[in-house]
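USER: Note each token:
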Amino acid sequence: ISAHRPLAGIRVLDLTRVLAGPYCSMILGDMGADVIKVERPGGGDETRQWGPPFAAEDSVYFLSVNRNKRSVCLDFGQPAGADLVRRLSRRCDVLLENFVPGKLAKRGLDFASLSAQNPGLIYCSISGFGQSGPWRRRAGYDVAAAAIGGFLGITGEPDGPPVRAGVAVTDLSTGLYALSAILAALYRRRTAESLGEVGRGCWIDANLLDTQVATMSHVAASFLHTGQEPSRWGTGHANLAPYQAFDTSDRRQLILGAGNDRQFGVLCRRLGAPHLATDPRFLSNRLRVANRTSLIPLIQALVRARPLADWLAALEGSDLPYGPVNTVAEALASPPVADPASGLLVTCEHPAAGRVTAPGPAVRFDGRRGEVTRPPPRLGEHTDEVLGELLDCGCEELLELRRGKVIA
């Protein structure tokens, strides 16, 4: 097993759609796992239609989170389709699903049923509000969980309304939590096997609301400690000052901050205002936070006197938190991202859409990122391949299943 494909040999049965689950399974595929994406006939994952923009018949949204997978199109609402899923699950290490809790149990596809046939199966359920409790039947959507979990309430300008984040942070974070739990379960199973014990699987419950509350982190902890409702700070920070965006003379914005008292001294010198570092009002972060209404206008006046490029040059080489507020185009064209040697942007050849580029794996193993070995699949592209390879379905059986509209 190569270092940059540490999950080679692991097979994942992916029954998820939309974002949290597919994002999780894509990263498993990036790490070398064989991911089999099961989709419904007649449309598949609904994000295939979440556009524009589209690339051939599928949305770019879908393409962005479904590389390194094989697509099997089958209807497991039918008994024969449910039986195919059961048979496939026996050949897999991990199963991912994001159906409303209880729905798969009606088809005999719940953890208890499938683990009875495959005790080593790691079964990960992703939902909106968990597998138990009064809200378990609610559909899970990122913006709803972000609203209920308090994230929207602290996001936006102080005098403005709540603002949704530009990407589905709660969905993506839930996918990452699910990923880490799956990897931990695989490690536990492998450790048991190495000790000569039975490597058992487990049932992982990952949900949007739990993720949102957990990732409220210090903000929630501060409320629990003080009882004071957190404010919205725009680009600012409740616990640090300065630490926010400032306008430059050419109407660009510059993120600028100081994480400690030493950095504040460096910042003042780089701004050409060393006297601010010795001002009694600003000698410590505690004082700067208490006196932010005096400090922030002083720094804003300094920053507004020069264009963005001048400030970037003046701050170069410092260890301060700083940078331009980029557009997406500028972010993707920035040297660390656009450099082909970085491998952060990956391009693959899609059979219908041609060359497709998207952000690639975020981490490296021994200096190498995971590989894109498969482009995002067309709907049902690998149905016959997977069923033949894993279930020994011959031509006659596949034809019969197709006649019955069980597979497509």
